[in-house]
Amino acid sequence: MRSTDTAFVQWLRTTPNLWSADLFTVTLTAQVSNPSAPTGTVWRWTNTDRPISYGGDTWLATGPRVARTSWSAKAQLEVPQMEVTIDSAASELLGDVPVNAFVNNGGFDGARVRLERALMPSASTAAFGTILLFEGRVSTAQAGRARATLTVKGDLVLLDQQMPRNLYQANCLHTLYDSGCTLLRSRYSWSNSVAAGSIVGTIVPATPLASLAPDGAGAAVDPQAFVQGAISFTGGVNAGVVRAIKVVSGGNMGLAYPLPHAPAVGDPFTITYGCDHTAATCKARFNNLANLRAFPYIPAAETAA
Questions:
Q1: How far, CA to CA in Å, does 19 sit from each of 48, 65, 109?
Q2: So what's the pLDDT on residue 36?
């Protein structure tokens, strides 16, 4: 049963011909690197060729083209799901970065998506009313050169998790710099820029990693500590792009995934320490054993009995 106002229901009963449009409302909940699209940013798009207004809000027809698959809803504990596709040109931006870069940087992680159907007596820009069809959060997002695909799942997905919550394993269960880890990202981040010789898969830092200022705890920088860390470009043609650092060799950083554009000398970026989630690294690199959520002394299964 979908609830709506009485006047709208009566209008549906007495109107023989209807025009309809899908309305997509996307609210960002992830903390992304792009400051022009912070948490709480709301985008409203429609799949028609004209903007649709209702209740003081307007869903735009310009910008990315949005479509969806069919969605499911059942009266049982099964997670409803819908796929949303976003087609865009290189010149179309979310915040100030291209759509595909925004998606691959995790900009839609955990974002809420609301799908409504607008109904009107003729092809106009004002809806008479809307019906809520689906609402949920983005579970996975991936993007190619011109198309991004978001898998949106209903809120029942919150119940779809392993139990018990605390698993006994040798590696730490925290995500580095999250509230459980308690470490401040700013204490283990450094600003730098691109030097000559950099390519899409390898970055040569203008300031050698070993020459960077001590970290927030006063310890000297260890170049290998950036392995499994991140590099975030704050300017240039790759502005807003974030990549994981896979290897550090000879003072240069090899990226886990190549950049969309070749960096130019002087392009600024920020680099952050990584962590392999072991007790040894937690103690030696961060002195954070008090917040380690790991069980490194679990006996092997063969000797546990």
A1: 11, 19, 33
A2: 64
Helices (H), 45-164: 99-104
Cα 18 to Cα 93, 133, 198, 284, distances in angstroms? 33, 17, 57, 67
Q: How far apart (Å, rounded) are the C-alpha atoms in residues 161 and 141? A: 19
Q: What residue spans define the domains of the chain?
A: 6-159, 185-291
Q: How many CB atoms lie within 10 A of CB 273?
A: 25
> Strand ranges (DSSP E) for 88-217?
93-94, 97-98, 112-120, 129-143, 147-153, 189-193, 202-203
Say how far apart CA 299 and CA 222 lie, in whole Å. Answer: 32
Cis? peptide before 164, omega within 30° of 0: yes
Whether the predicted pLDDT of 159 surpasses 60? yes
- Spatial distance between the Cα atoms of 133 and 119, rounded to a whole number of angstroms: 13
Helix (H, G, I), strand (E, B) or coil at 292: coil
Q: What is the pLDDT of residue 265?
A: 96
> pLDDT tens, 112-152?
999 999 888 777 788 888 889 899 999 999 988 889 999 99
Identify the CATH number of the domain defined by range 185-291.
2.40.10
205: which strand partners? 194
The upper half-sphere exposure of residue 7, i.e. CA atoms within 13 Å in the direction of its Cβ, equals 2
Note whether 142 and 149 are within 8 A (CB): yes
Q: Is residue 11 within a helix (H) or strand (E), and if so which, with residue range?
A: helix 6-14
Q: Is 74 exposed, middle or buried (0-12, 13-18, 19+ CB in 10 A)?
A: exposed
β-bridge partners, 208: none
